[in-house]
Design a protein that fits this description.
The chain is mainly β. The chain has one helix at residues 13-20, and strands at 25-29, 35-36, 51-55, 59-68, 80-87, 92-97, 110-117, 123-129. It has one domain (13-133).
């Protein structure tokens, strides 16, 4: 059984190309300087249509998480950790924490982006704990 692949549109294409290349891409408004995630046609902060794509640093902190102990299918073996990650640039995104025991994950833990190939063409951002997740 294969995993569900996200749709790619003209709007999201730079994001998916970045993921495939190992770069987390975010939109930044050239009018107000704010970053946003998920991709949109207008700035979610000021409404301007002057958005550019930038490479995020990939650092973040866990805002919330849950441990899924029963996968929805054989394509998603449990347990796995779904987390809301506050990126250093400001936006919050949902992703997975990988290669960590559930007991080591906590709200406020520091994480760094990595990428997981879901197909030949699609890679998704995932996060790994950094320095045992402790904020330095």
């Amino acid at each position: 059984m294969s995993r569900i692949l996200p749709p790619t549109t003209a709007l999201t294409q730079p994001y998916w190309e970045g993921c495939k290349a190992g770069e987390l891409k975010l939109q930044r408004c050239t009018a107000c300087g704010e970053h946003q995630f998920y991709p949109r046609t207008l700035c979610s902060h000021c409404g301007a249509a002057t958005l550019e794509w930038i490479s995020a640093c990939g650092a973040g902190t866990v805002a919330s998480f849950t441990v899924v102990r029963r996968g929805i299918s054989d394509a998603y073996p449990a347990p796995y950790i779904v987390a809301l990650v506050d990126l250093a640039e400001g936006p919050r995104m949902m992703s997975n924490i990988v290669d960590a025991e559930p007991e080591r994950v906590f709200v406020g833990a520091t994480v760094a982006v990595d990428f997981s190939a879901w197909s030949e063409d699609v890679s998704l951002p995932v996060f790994r704990l950094t320095d045992n997740g402790v904020i330095s």
